[in-house]
Amino acid sequence: MNWTKKDLLEIKKLTKEEILLILETAESFKEISLREIKKVPTLRGKTIITLFYEPSTRTRTSFEIAAKRLSADTINISANTSSYVKGETLKDTGKNLESMKPDVIVIRHSMPGAPHMLARTLKSSIINAGDGAHEHPTQALLDLFTIKEKKGRIDGLKVAIIGDIIHSRVARSNIFALKQFNTEVVCCGPATMIPPHMEKLGVKVEYDINKAVIDADVIMMLRIQKERGGVSYIPSIREYACLYGLKKTHLEKAKKDVIVMHPGPMNRGIEISDEVADGEYSVILDQVENGVAVRMAILYLLTGREQ
Amino acid sequence: MKILIKKGRVIDPKNNTDDILDIYINGAVIEKIGKNIKEKGDEDAIINASGHIVAPGFIDIHTHLREPGYEYKETIKTGTLAAAKGGFTSVVCMANTDPVNDNKSVTEFILKKARMEGSCRVFPCGAITKGLKGEELSEIGEMFDAGIVAISDDGKTVKHSGLLRKALEYSKIFNIPVISHCEDTDLSQGFVNEGMASLLSGLDAVPSIAEELIVQRDIMIAEYVKAYIHLTHISTAGSVEIVALTKKRYSNISCDTCPHYFTLTEEATLNFDTNTKVNPPLRSEKDVEVIKEGLKNGTIDIISTDHAPHDLTSKDVEFNLASSGISGLETALGLSLKLVHDGVLSLSELIKKFTVNPARLLKLPYGELGEGKTADLIVFNPDMEWIVDKNLFLSKGKNTPFHGWRLKGKNLLTIVDGRIVYREGTI
Q1: pLDDT in tens, A237-279
Q2: pLDDT in tens, B294-350
């Protein structure tokens, strides 16, 4: 199949075939980063802008490296250095950037739907690099890629997503992605951090982490989204760490070959203990490595789409 | 001016009229209603209403005309033009202008402007509290003398229960309704319905109980002090149930809903179209069904528009930042007639919710057709299909989620005080 979409805004609008196409394309790109000369001319002459209204280390760097390894030109804009602080609307910023003819704009924003607004307005391809608590599609895709790489399959797996679910775009995107496959997804966290009607997404809800991890093939930990008010949903960070922090003892209840994932940034000692984060089951740094390959694939597919 | 309207199907729920009749208007008054009124030859206009409905002019109890202060969103002139086009001969304008209509100078200004530039009648609604701040009562008595017909802090709930109690008690002096916007802001820190909309979009949520708690509280206080309470733009199944229960024991209560609450569900918000951002938010399918049921069984007395015009910039931003509201005067009739086409309401029942019931709430001498009565009436076709084009709105507010929709039913002629203020080319 061929890629036809102009933008990558949300996982829930992707078909299973589109997800698989991205994963397959990423597989072929992964090797480039292992070469001595980590560059191919595939996107030479393409211009990619990253427009970040929220802080980011991993995602922004990952996109930039992905673009550069494909020989695209990249420009990074962050909110505190943009005209945003001078009162320019997002739409105007987008239109102004488009006048300089970028091929792709990668946007991260604290408000859900901000990338959709740009996508409706601009001819450039828009990639959602996280919009508030809505979606973070490239994170879910790199998570799927990592699961497939480590487990050899996605179908038939039990995945426990644990933490501040209500504020998590990573949880949402991963749920939409995993439910395209034959998976069992358990969402676990304090009741205040599980949105009402969660089960309607086809997931199980579990308040007890000890039960959530039973027979899990994959455990995905999330941090408390302090920037979205997450802290007010719990009595204290200390209590949260006691009740929902992932410790080595939890892993004994999971499958023997369980993998532990985290989209980062980690808060060690809160949602994840050092021994788990750095332990043999952790694939957290593999996720980061795979992020580059997945983003290379997405940039490649979007810029080379059939018009 | 003398106008003869011939052969229309005259529906006047107040007087139980539903017949093919002629209406002769002389000056501001309906002089005669009857079969085959003969032309006298001195008529300024003869309208052939054959195949159309002739009804009392609609009364919108919930409109935002934005003047004074937000003339870039709407003016009394453009808002009343939109009203006339939509089939409304009277509108109640809410107090959240700048300055707020919390004193008689603003009330007088609005009424003066309306007399000079208005295409329909304008009845100001005064603020319950000064500056809509919820801290102290406005000078309701002075505003009443100047011409307000109700009080409301619309856009906000009077959070302080003690102050609301005083407002309800005070309203009894003037026999005007308190119109309540029901929203517990401690619970409603969001933008879309809590349910599938918030779950799928990640947008902050407004749960149904944010509305229902205040509906219940306001009813309890009103009942306690034996005052009249009107709950505006109710949107949830729970609110309908609470009102239905209350009505069994307490009669000084009424409520309204708006076309978008029985036309759209929360699903419409999923593409982040800011035109679907309203307060209260669009609700679930179940809520929409119960709202329709409430309209059918009479729990919901009135359909209002909550006409909330906005400039482009207020809507052309991120969903969180966008202003709430729909420019609703010009689509209300077409959207509401779907209730008739779908068999939820009869034509007469629908017209009642736009005429008799609002007139009764506000004690206005309009909303009916009768010999000797004021000539406020409309001629509409309930079956004529048309496509909503926001660019053709007379309102300055082009913010509608119904752009491009095919609606069945259209207003063709509006007469206010015996004057033709709107007329489609086809009639």
Answers
A1: 999 999 999 999 999 999 999 999 999 999 999 999 999 999 9
A2: 999 999 999 999 999 999 999 999 999 999 999 999 999 999 999 999 999 999 999
Q: Does A152 touch chain B (CB under 8 A)?
A: no
Query: Is-contact B420 B5, C-beta < 8 A?
Result: no
> Where along chain B do its domains lie?
2-54+373-381+405-423, 57-362
How many angstroms separate the CA atoms of B67 and B80, rounded? 11
Cα A108 to Cα A60, A64, A114, A266, distances in angstroms: 9, 14, 8, 19
Q: For residue B251, count other CB atoms closer than 10 A to its CB.
A: 9
pLDDT digits (tens, 9 = 90+) for B156-215: 999 999 999 999 999 999 999 999 999 999 999 899 999 999 999 999 999 999 999 999
Closest chain A CA to residue B202: A134
Whether residue A9 contacts residue A126, with contact meaning beta carbons closer than 8 Å, is answered with: yes
Using the Cβ of A276 and the Cβ atoms of chain B, whether some distance falls under 8 Å is answered with: no
Closest CA to A247 of A216, A198, A209, A288: A209
Per-residue pLDDT tens over the stretch A47-98: 999 999 998 989 999 999 999 999 999 999 987 777 777 788 999 999 999 9
Contact residues, chain A, for B195 at CB < 8 Å: 196-197
B398 in Cβ contact with B391 (< 8 Å): yes
Burial of B41 (0-12, 13-18, 19+ CB in 10 A): exposed
Residue found by looking up tokens 């026999």 in the block: B175
Superfamily name with CATH number, domain B57-362: Metal-dependent hydrolases (3.20.20.140)
What is the architecture of the domain spanning B2-54+373-381+405-423? Roll (2.30)
Tokens of A83: 């005209």
The DSSP line for B140-204 is HHHHHHHT--EE--TTS----HHHHHHHHHHHHHHT-PEEE----TTT--SSEETTHHHHHH---
Would you call B199 an interface residue with chain A, using a CB distance cutoff of 8 Å? yes
What distance in Å separates the CA atoms of residue B252 and residue B230, rounded to the nearest whole number? 8
Which chain A residue is nearest to residue B272, measuring alpha carbons? A113
| Count of CB atoms situated within 10 Å of the CB of A43 | 23
E runs forming strands in B217-373? 229-231, 253-257, 302-303
- The yes-or-no answer on residue B306 being catalytic is yes
In DSSP notation, A4-52 reads: --S-B--GGG--HHHHHHHHHHHHHHHGGGGSSS---STTTT-EEEEEE
Q: Which residues contact B192 (CB under 8 A, 6 or more apart)?
A: B198, B201, B203, B204, B205, B206, B266, B269, B277, B281, B282
For B266, the token pair is 């929360």
Give the span between the Cα atoms of B83 and A26, in whole angstroms: 57
Closest partner residue to A116 (CB to CB) among B200, B272, B316 is: B272
pTM: 0.95
